[in-house]
Amino acid sequence: MFPLLTPARIDETVLVVAVEPPVDVLDVAVLVGIEDVGLASPWVARVLCTPQGEETPSMTAQQMGLWLFPVCAVGIGCGSVKSADLQTAGMYITAEVETDDWETHLSARITTGPEWGADRVELGSGDRLSASYGDVLVDLVEDNAGYHRATTQDVVGDEVVFHLDRSSDVSAPSTIVTMPPLFEITAPTAGEVVDVEGSLVVEWSPPDPGEEVSYVFTQSGCVPNEEAGFDVEDDGYLLLDLGEVEVEPSVTSDQCEATLEMTRQREGVVDPAFEEGGEAVGRVIRTIGFTTQYPAR
User: Fold this and answer.
1) How far apart are CA 96 and CA 292, in angstroms?
2) Measured between alpha carbons, how far is 141 from 144 in angstroms, rounded to an integer?
3) What per-residue confidence (pLDDT) applies to 35?
4) CB-based burial of residue 83 (10 Å sphere; 0-12 exposed, 13-18 middle, 19+ buried)?
């Protein structure tokens, strides 16, 4: 046997595992379906999930030190199953609502379980997935990846309820996504040129005491201290310590294009008819772009 890293999703069809050679491709595929063992390893294998019967794309992965192979061919999943062949109790739902600066995105995906490579469930006639907020009922449209989506510019309020209505089995009408309070970033402002002398003041309103907010701060042309993916108290104020910023040699300007993204997130409640379980997540995301001005070199 050889150690595996916990797989991480690259996109909707790709998993990543790390292995120590010599590697047997079939062994890796089977192990990904059994368990995730968090052990470090210098080698990486990308596992490409392709639906059964489809050809795995020809790529130069071996030249990159990567192995690509279809895991569905060995029975792990990534395929689909008709909803008519599955009871609601055997389904797993992922329901998400994201409100950004322009609109709100609603999405839901039903699979046979939470594990990597679980089959997606294709809803047949007589099965309907929708969402509601207030007095508004929205039908969700399925895309090629098996996500049922809708977009609205409405203010959806505190809750969005996802409904799975079934004609041949138990319905699951009440997966509830709880939405965090709306907020706005008040400092810096979009397009502003901010003088930075070791720190950056970030403010947002209204605060949500007792909760957390996450932020990601990035700059192009400069390399700040690692300030990304942090959770902080949602008190409306953050002093972002940039420390020593090293301007790349090829950059002659002391100004950098910066982006700040802040996210509030709440966990909701999955309808108990989904005995496999699920996730119900609501997010409010705010993003601004501005310019950071560092002392002249």
Assistant:
1) 34
2) 10
3) 32
4) buried
CB atoms within 10 A of CB 248: 10
> Can you give the pLDDT at residue 86?
95
* Ranges of the chain whose pLDDT falls below 50: 1-77, 225-226
Q: Which residues pair with 74 in a beta bridge?
A: none
pLDDT at 76: 42
Q: How far apart are CA 65 and CA 14, in angstroms?
A: 16
147 strand-pairing partners? none
120-135 burial, b if ≥16 CB within 10 A, otherwise e?
bbbbeeebebbbbbee
**In this structure, what are the phi and psi dihedrals at residue 29, rounded to the nearest 5 degrees?**
-60, -45
Which tokens belong to 248? 């790349």
The rounded distance, in Å, linking the Cα atoms of 87 and 264 is 34
How many Å apart are CA 183 and CA 99, to the nearest integer?
11
β partners of residue 49: none
Render the burial of 15-40: b for 16+ CB within 10 Å, e for the rest: bbbbbeeeeebeebbebbbeeeeeee
Domains and CATH numbers, the chain: 8-77 (no CATH), 81-178 (2.60.40), 184-270+280-293 (2.60.40)
The per-residue b/e assignment along 176-197, b for 16 or more CB within 10 angstroms, e otherwise, is: bbbbbeebebebbeeeeeeebe
Residue 279 to residue 277: CA distance in whole angstroms: 7
pLDDT of residue 115: 82
pTM: 0.72
Res 240: pLDDT:
84
Structure token digits, residue 38: 């968090």
